[in-house]
Structures are given as structure tokens and as C-alpha cells.
Amino acid sequence: MRDADEPPFDVQVREASGAAVIVFEGDLDLLSANRAETTLLDAQAAGGTVYLDLRSLRFIDSSGLRVILEAHRRAGERGSRLLVSAGEHAVLRIMTVSGVGELLDLVDAPPEEP
Amino acid sequence: MTSELHESWVAEPPAVPRARASVTAFARAAGASPDVVDDIRLAVSEAATNVVLHAYLGSAPGPLGVRASLEGRRLEVEVCDEGGGLRARPDSPGLGIGLSLISAVTESVQISQSGRKLNRVIMAFDLDAVRNAIA
Lengths: 114, 135
Hints:
Chain A contains four helices and five strands; from the N terminus they run ββαβαβααβ. Chain A has helices at about 35-45, 60-80, 90-100, 100-105; strands at about 10-15, 20-30, 50-60, 80-85, 105. In chain A, strands 1-2-3-4-5 form a five-stranded mixed beta sheet. The longest helix of chain A has 17 residues, at about 60-80. By secondary structure, chain B is an alpha+beta fold. The interface of A and B includes residues 61, 66, 89, 90 and 94 of A.
């Protein structure tokens, strides 16, 4: 049971300026981590730049941070890039408290153009 | 308003958002500031995740309980299980920072193991806390 206060997790994937743009929405936690991880793995398989837009994410915890850190590590290993936009106050706060924000490549927003 | 909350679920992943929703609704009804609600949401999520990942390792998942009580403007939240206690898990799918995140956002945190099989993480929050600006 999730009420209106606890939105489920959702994912959108699009392309912009030749890069993959992944949008995570809702709550990224232990329950949704697998889906988030699969989405990132798929997008990174092509080897290009991946934008991860967390601006519609309302909540993240260490299960979600792990998924994003793993993706960041994979990008580094493959010489590609993972660029993260963390807009929401609560998400930014957790990134700061955990120190994870400092490890990621943060950008204000992913490109809009198709 | 009710000043006690007591709920329990099977310690599987869907229990994590349920525990979060339940305690944050209680905290909000108690008039917690939005910043404190954010902190409570994170702390409960981490504590519940620890129970799901570690408490019943190698056996069928048992209960994940939450209890919250209000004393003045102090909210005490307890996340408990009846599993094997805090154990290292070499294949842990977690990031290993759950407890340090909890202590970063709580006024105090206490871990207790009473009897053979009741493990509790007891976290306290000041409902009126004003968070310092993020450096």
C-alpha cells in the first residue's frame, strides 16, 4: 500500500543531443533499486554519455545511492560519462549528508533537444 | 491525535516504503517541520532496509515492526526485528552507510538487543529542529 504521499518509482528514457536521458521519478529505495539498476545498465551498454535526471525524484536512500554510484563507477571504467541532475531539496540533502554528491558529475539539467 | 503508532510487516522489500509512509504520516500529523519529516523518512528507510537485508539472512523473513511515540516535541521511532541481530553480510547489496546516515539525521540513535531475539534501533527526533544550512 502506497498512498498519495509516497509515490511509486517510475522511469522514463529518452534521447537528447545524441545522449541517453534517464528520468527517475518517485522514491528510489530497496524496492525500486533493481529497476533503476537495469535501466542504467541498459542505457550504459551503448557506451555513450548518459544523463540521469533526478529532479523528479522525491526520495532516495542508500539503496538508491549505491545504484547511482555503481553506474558512475561503470562509466569511469568504460571512459564514458554519467551526468547527474539532482534538483529536489530532499534528494540533494541526502546526497550531501552521505557525501555521494561530491563523487558524482553533477549538472543543472540534461539537454532538452531531441 | 494518536500519540502512538505500532505497525508490523513481513520483512521484505515492500515493507521499506510502507514503514516510511507510516512513520512520516505520523510525524506530519504531530506537526513535524518539513526538514524533520525528510530526516525521519531517511532514517526509517535505512533502518527498515537493514532489517530486510540482514535480520533474517538464511531463514524465512519474519516481522519488521515500527513503533513511534510522541513525548512533548520529541518523537521516538523504533524499528525492530526478531532476527539474528546485526551481522556482517559479505555479499551485502547495501552501500554500508545506512547506520551513519541514520546517525547524521537523528538527535540520537541507540541499538539494542534484548533477550535472544528482539533487535531494536531506537531513533529520536526533535520535531521542531531547524536544520543548519548545508555547507
